[in-house]
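Order emerges. As here.
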Amino acid sequence: MEEHFSRPMPRGICTCGSLRAASRRVSQYYDSVLAPLRLKITQFSILAEVHRGGLQVPISMHDLAVAMFMDRSTLGHNLRPLVRDELLHLRTKASQYSSKLGDSGSVPRSELREYLVKNQRRHFARPC
């Protein structure tokens, strides 16, 4: 078994490693697009999921973690700045979150969506 690890693996042979690297590059791109709005793509994804899951009633932290494929501690770490910046409202009774996107003092939902679509078209509409 040791002989398999004694030689370096050629770059790109590990599908998981390649997917993780591609995912990081895509995240870096979206982080740069969202930088003027002072958001990261992880934060935007959480806001979108809270809005999607909490349209009728606030979404619980458990349900949000399941929907985001995150453990609760990672999700909690990512939620803190959104609550601090008042983009999310925390109802402490049952750890439920509701989106404040579109309320005064935050980025209007339609403006954020339009901004992302415009930047995606600008960067990805080029021929290969």
